[in-house]
Fold each of these.
Amino acid sequence: MTNQRGAKKRAQFVPWRSAGNRTETGGSADEIVRSTGWVFNNETGSELTLEEFVATGNKEVRRYMRQFGFEGERLAPLTLLEIGSGIGRMTASFTEQCAHVVAADVDAAFLERCRETVGKHGRADRLTTTHVQDGSTLALADNSVDVAFSYITLQHCQRNDALGLTREAIRVTRSGGTVILNYRSWVFSDVLLIPAGILVRLLWRMPAIGKRISATRWATRFGWQANRLSPDEVLQDIIDHCQKSLTEITIYHSPFQVRHVSHSNAQVKSLKRVNRSHWWLVATVSGS
Ligand SMILES: C[S@@+](CC[C@H](N)C(=O)[O-])C[C@H]1O[C@@H](n2cnc3c(N)ncnc32)[C@H](O)[C@@H]1O
């Protein structure tokens, strides 16, 4: 059922496929969250329920959207695209707040669970899903959404996929709309994490043990940190490759990890509770 054509040789897809397969084995939504919750937001616990899992997403959606200027009813008339929705941890909340939500993910089985999650905890009538079959292209028309959002996803793709999805987010967002995209960049612990990640991704390719270790939390957490991108690298790629441009650009980073940005049109702000290794690009899309 999960269609990963064109993506077979890419090691960074292995843990998602493995978790995706597990979501297809049947079992209740609560059981699925207990066995795969760690894949999405490091949520673990033998008693974890889908409701609790979604509550973590509600909290983060409310906090981030408020911090990024989408307070009160501002989302109510809007169509929002969520790139890397997983099984709908945040999607349910977006459907409560937006007129329409498009959930996109590289794993088709996650999208099925996402629809289920939204059916139970959000507004299924406001949801459509789209499978990111090749890991970098969105099957959506130009200018078809008002907001493109992505959280803890672009760091888990290959670098070119993360840049490709960024360009796609801008392409599908209408002029005057907003992109809210989360990335990972370098931190000191990468001295150890990068080689560990390379090793785990190599092991994932080995038929005998790859499948087994892709289902373990410790190995996967090393292996899936597939890329680091700085704000300048992302902004330069947009300038070089996008027909549209960005205005009102703000880069948000952790108060504990200052990010230098040389792009002259970008404001740089620290934001409480942003993970040290993460940063956000929030900007208005301009042009058609
Ligand atoms: C860590 S999970 C985060 C899910 C969700 N954003 C959340 O916070 O609960 C990352 C998600 O990104 C998806 N993903 C990874 N690579 C992707 C790609 N190239 N295109 C689209 N989705 C991708 C995975 O399948 C997974 O569902």
Amino acid sequence: MAKIDEVKEQVIIGKTKIVPGLVQEALNEGSAAKDILQAMIDGMKIVGDRFSAGEIYVPEMLIAAKAMSKGVEVLKPMLSAEASTSLGTCIIGTVEGDLHDIGKNLVNMMIGSAGFDMVDLGVDQAPNKFIEAIKNNKNVKLVACSALLTTTLPALKKTVDAIKETGLSGFKIIVGGAPVTQKFADEIGADGYAPDAGAAAEKAKSIIAA
Ligand code: B12
């Protein structure tokens, strides 16, 4: 089995200690960092499907997530390059009620490497936490909100509404996460949407220039 396939298999079964070494071996074997990342994302899709089918439970999802996070750490230097000029500050977080952060962390890394100074609020963040961060940080140009559950899509809307109601300006809001679509982003009045971390970085740059 190619190392990259082993990475995927070991992420699925949550082998936190083994995954980082395998990721390094896959790199040594000549696999591209973005392909290894995609293999891990594909692995998480299988984990999600097994959860839906009732074959595994929350603890198994959690250890798979930990294994993937450890693998991403190895890839980080290859996926993100330091930009020399700053495009401003980006506040990023997962919305209230939602504990998923792997996707948000990848978006953080990619938008950061596009040249933004990142302020990561973490998971389960109420609208006022985003607002406080916008007020307390200098030169905020972008706010990025993540939601992974259909049940937290309303919290995404609540967050965008609350930020807009403050009347604060000078920044754009982008939203994303598996259940989020361009249509939903438009409906809730977000300025932008992107389906994955690479596209999020492109969108971040184009949206603040618009
Ligand atoms: C790992 C995981 C967990 C872990 C999370 C650990 C962690 N540190 O993140 C734990 C165990 C905590 C968990 C808990 C739950 N989970 Co869960 N989880 C997953 C799983 C398997 C993987 C998620 C993941 O990391 N994917 C990989 C990343 C890279 O992809 P991503 O998050 O989609 O991110 C990409 C894009 O969406 C986008 N993106 C993400 N954020 C943003 C933000 C912006 C601004 C932009 C532009 C783009 C963007 O870019 C990212 C990178 O390319 C998914 C299945 C799946 N395949 O998604 C289920 C899944 C999301 N979970 C699900 C469920 C049901 C739950 C629970 C309710 C289970 C329960 N009964 O308790 C709880 C809810 C807890 C809570 N309140 O949040 C369901 C959601 C169903 C739904 N439609 O709502 C899923 C789809 C599984 C399933 N098939 O049923 N989960």
